[in-house]
Specification:
25% strand; 6-stranded mixed beta sheet; alpha/beta; Rossmann fold; 2 domains; globular; 17 helices
């Protein structure tokens, strides 16, 4: 086997930031090669160069020994036989699965699309992926995990001999993840080269042969996965020892005071959740665990006024919420939410870091009726750059160009800039590296020690168990269990509740 990919002295600069610095390493044909590093280490930028998204860079990219320079992602698919499975789900909701998979490369019968062949070909791939939906299904009817599988089907459809996976399991259930790993093993046996980016180190040990580590835009080392440990990988990634597992470092801060009470909350139109009842106490971290599609996010969206309350009661500090509840009223009553979908609902894509951090607390910076004090905004942003270790520490930098973990920190800074007492974290560490995870966990404990109350929605069982004072488990839109003591946090029992076991 020869070298499938060689990066030779790759340098990439954005205005004010040197993102990649002399990156050189190679990937063997037919191996599963992990690309690891903290958020902002340069992994996504390097993949974007490989896939033709960024055409301007210094250095050389070689595929199978031959230098290439793709002008676009389409050019890379067509002339390089390389595909990318993105972390963000990229689909056209109103089209069928088959149309999404084959888009731009549809099989033809004369001048027309051969829909029968399209659907038969795509159904064969979906069967191979162990998917429980069909090529003719409309994409908007699918779950987030199912939509992610479309991207994987698309890469297989293109017969790519190099496929990169950027956090592919972020939206997948454990069963879908197992199906994906089985497919990756099959692709490897067929001689396909896989570049795999993930912050879940257990995945790296499960499916990868070698791992290349980047830190602050520089190459650190390439390791044989079977000859290393999780601690060694983390140390190489962050330059210090960091726990990869969520755990509490301070005792429970919860008091008996109930700051939020939910009674019989029911979605009477979409049926996404039914008869949801629970309480949140001051200083508590209340965990919400369940599999993808359990209805947890939909409940949280009602609490913060993003979706209408249809049936049931919500009390904030013993006062019922008004009928015309919305996100502005929720913010004024002291409740906010860090959305799972940070790219679309977490921050303004057209705004800078300074603007995004200040966006939910503008009244603090008002100068008269119509103007804001920019120096106050700047001071606030600089405070959180240090407090949360946001990188790059540039107030005028566009948040949309930050790495996923640093975007998450900007959103967290936005909410910490307000005076809210209840913060809902929806999948707070999705797509976030181990060092950023540890930082977010520390901040959560700091927030509850200040008397704030947190609801943490997580699909990661170790995270839910490690962080929560009490744990609510949902399955198919219902609460199937509430564990009120950490001594009851048994993973088998929690998973039983999550698949709809006995209350």
């Amino acid at each position: 086997m020869g070298k499938a990919i060689e990066f030779v002295k790759i340098n990439k600069r954005f205005p004010g930031v040197h993102v990649l610095k002399d990156i050189s390493f190679s990937v063997e044909e037919g191996e599963v090669h992990a690309l690891l590093g903290e958020n902002g280490a340069g992994k996504s930028t390097l993949l974007n160069i490989l896939h033709g998204v960024y055409g301007e860079y210094e250095g050389a990219v070689l595929l199978h020994g031959k230098e290439v320079h793709f002008k676009s992602a389409n050019d890379a698919i067509k002339n390089g036989n390389i595909s990318k499975v993105h972390q963000e789900i990229m689909v056209v909701e109103e089209l069928s699965v088959g149309q999404n998979v084959t888009m731009g490369y549809e099989p033809k019968k004369g001048a027309f699309i051969d829909f029968n062949k399209m659907h038969n070909d795509v159904d064969a791939i979906l069967k191979e992926l162990n998917c429980n939906f069909k090529s003719r299904d409309i994409v908007r009817t699918l779950t987030a995990g199912q939509k992610q599988m479309i991207a994987i089907a698309k890469a297989i459809y293109h017969h790519s001999n190099i496929i990169s996976f950027d956090e592919p399991t972020a939206s997948l259930t454990s069963k879908e993840t197992e199906a994906l790993f089985a497919v990756i093993e099959k692709l490897k046996k067929d001689g396909i080269t896989i570049l795999y980016v993930s912050h879940h180190l257990e995945e790296i040990f499960q499916i990868c042969d070698r791992a290349t580590i980047l830190r602050d835009g520089e190459f650190v080392q390439t390791l044989n996965v079977k000859e290393t440990t999780e601690d060694e990988l983390i140390h190489a990634m962050v330059g210090r020892s960091v726990s990869a597992v969520a755990s509490r470092t301070i005792p429970c801060q919860a008091t008996k005071e109930v700051v939020l009470k939910v009674e019989g909350l029911t979605d009477t139109t979409g049926g996404k959740f039914k008869d949801i009842s629970f309480e949140l106490h001051r200083g508590e971290i209340l965990g919400f665990y369940g599999l993808v599609g359990a209805g947890r996010t939909e409940v949280m969206r009602v609490l913060v006024g993003a979706d209408p309350k249809l049936e049931g009661n919500i009390y904030l500090k013993n006062v019922p919420i008004p009928r015309n509840w919305n996100s502005t009223k929720a913010l004024s009553r002291g409740i906010g939410m860090l959305s799972e979908d940070r790219k679309n609902t977490g921050f303004n894509k057209l705004a800078t870091n300074m603007q995004n951090i200040a966006i939910s607390s503008l009244e603090k910076y008002m100068k008269g009726l119509f103007f804001t004090d920019e120096s106050k905004k700047l001071k606030n942003a600089e405070h959180y750059f240090e407090e949360l270790d946001i990188n790059p520490k540039l107030p005028a930098y566009m948040t949309v160009n930050m790495s996923g973990g640093n975007q998450q920190k900007v959103i967290l800074a936005k909410w910490m800039s307000t005076d809210i007492d209840i913060i809902i974290f929806d999948e707070p560490t999705k797509g976030v590296d181990v060092a950023a995870k540890a930082e977010i966990y520390r901040l959560m404990e700091e927030l509850v020690s200040q008397g704030k109350s947190l609801i943490v929605v997580s699909s990661e069982l170790p995270e839910a168990i490690g962080l929560s004072d009490r744990l609510v488990i949902m399955s198919e839109g219902r609460i199937t269990g509430i564990l009120t003591d950490r001594s009851e946090f048994d993973s088998d029992a929690i998973l039983n509740y999550a698949i709809g076991g006995n209350e």
